[in-house]
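To assess whether the prediction recovers the assembly geometry, we first specified each molecular entity separately, as shown.
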Amino acid sequence: MGDEKGHLLIVDDNKVNRLLMSRSVELLGHRASVAENGAVAMQMLGQGAFDMILLDIEMPEMDGFEVLEALKGDAELRDLPVIVTSSVEGLDNIVRCIELGADDYIPKPVNKTLLNARVSSGLEKKRLYDEQKRLLKRFATDEVAQDLREQGFAIGGRRISATVLFCDIRDFTAISENMSPEDTIELLNTYYTLMFEAVTSQGGIVSLMVGDGLMALFGAPQPLENSAQSAVSAAQEMLGMIEVLNAEPVSLDQPELRVGFGIATGEVVAGYAGTDARATYTCIGRTVNLAARLEAHTKLAGHSILLDPETHRHLDSPESCSPVEAVRFKGFTDALDVFGL
Amino acid sequence: MTETLVDPDAIAELADTMGADFASELVETFLGDAPDMIAALKEALSAGDADGYRRAAHSIKSNAQTFGAGALADQAREMELTGLSAGAPAIPELEDIWHRTAAVLKGLPDG
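The predicted structure of the complete assembly is given in tokenized form:
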């Protein structure tokens, strides 16, 4: 906990102070780099990974206040702990540092015990923040994590135009009955790895995983130029990868995998659904239902990928699709034109 | 008047916590850098550069405090707070204290 070692950036225009601070930090077992003013510091921060900054205030070129402001405006650096180490005069200047986002203030000459305590708590804070970021990345996609950082978290949704993709493995229950549970899980993990890769590479996010089924969103929360085309490209990429997977089965008993895709485009309500304690980014609406129905219909239609007219209309080459007999899906009043790929 | 030019306790503590060799090296660095800081102070005064003046005085103060150079720190702090309006006489006074402080620092064992 308290004995985590870190890489600290010491920013001070005075050579004696730089030597003294580096030595103090190194004696505490940490690594120190130095910058002689704020401008040099910002450049170094842009290039290397630091765990904390020890910042002087009075400096030429770019002073400590300006550095604090620049850090505040930078999404990557905003949460880096900063300890102001200065012999700056006036309580109002110290208050200003804290208001600008400094975590702490240590007067110069710096007391070694105080420095040790402050650096340890700063590094712990950094470690917790990094952990939080890692968790956010693991349980949310980059896009959702970015949306959360920028917009903050609020239960509720907004109406946007997006493309929804559903896919699942045909007859997975029958397949898994003939396999050991270990092999089944391994097969699912391989399948999910491939699916995630295909969805993410096309700018989509995986919103839901249930058993062997998966729901992906394109164009939400971050807009895409052509969400319909991205979703179809992702589905084609997945089919290609399933072929590779079938060529190299996980186990000898593994039968050939066949996957169906349903893709629909239109207005959805997207947002965080759940409670304040546990929520997920998802979409609901007619478009979502339609995509699910289309996916279910692939078995009957004899196509791996089925599209609604709106998705079809937006494709770069709609002529590559063949029309399938119009279907009246459960929950929908009118029969709908369907296209197969 | 008995002014403290260099507090021996401050130097001893520096050597104790940072290592004697490092402390000597730090004193050497200060002895080398201080004349540049005083030159910067003079330059800022003649250029009417208030920020530069305050910064140079601040630097001298900050380093003087590190070595327990009380008289030098007090004079530099006074100049930092008063700024350019402290005028020309403040600098010779600072230089005088600096020369006497430097003499003590140079006389330190291994200094």
